[in-house]
């Protein structure tokens, strides 16, 4: 464990930053969102603004899907909101790592997503400084690459063709799985993850979009509550 007296060592902080930079580069699949959003009926400018202000990946695709189906904007917002609720659970988990002052805390809240939470938790055993380094490096990197490539996708959709043919939509799930995989070696964590997956899968058959993810996340947090307090 790379800590001294509970504090992160410089090596641990550098390692967290390296991991964050690598994961941040996966934001290039924002090009897929930009293309899909425009193909769904949004203007390029609307797609770009949505990425900047609603930086939540899956929620953005949910909104675009409703728009493509001809649904009302309020329906799209509801679907996006349900999917984005899981970030509230992440914020509770990260509350001690996020800044205390209002403005930095507001900026940090924009970056509380799957990848940044996973990176922070992964490096938390090496001390709070390493966890924060992983969070901020991943968040800033993903936000930058996601928004830049959203612009490319939104304004270059006609020249690019079908973005799904590039396989960019699989980059984020693959990276997330790589982050959580080491924790699945523990029997308790693996059991909780399996239960959460089953709950989400079953609910996906009957519940609105976003509810299965939120329920699975709640199951995981409740199941691992003892572990976080220990």
TrEMBL record:
Keyword presence, Cell membrane: yes
Transmembrane intervals: 21-42, 62-83, 133-154, 166-184, 190-223
InterPro entries noted in UniProt: Brnchd-chn_aa_trnsp_permease
Annotated Pfam families: AzlC (PF03591)
Compartments (UniProt record): Cell membrane
Secretion signal span: none
Record bears the keyword Signal: no
Alphabetical keyword list: Cell membrane, Membrane, Transmembrane, Transmembrane helix, Transport
Membrane topology annotation: Multi-pass membrane protein
Primary site of residence: membrane
Family the entry assigns: Belongs to the AzlC family.
Listed PANTHER family: INNER MEMBRANE PROTEIN YGAZ
Protein name: AzlC family ABC transporter permease
Organism: Aquipuribacter hungaricus
Organism phylogeny: Bacteria, Bacillati, Actinomycetota, Actinomycetes, Micrococcales
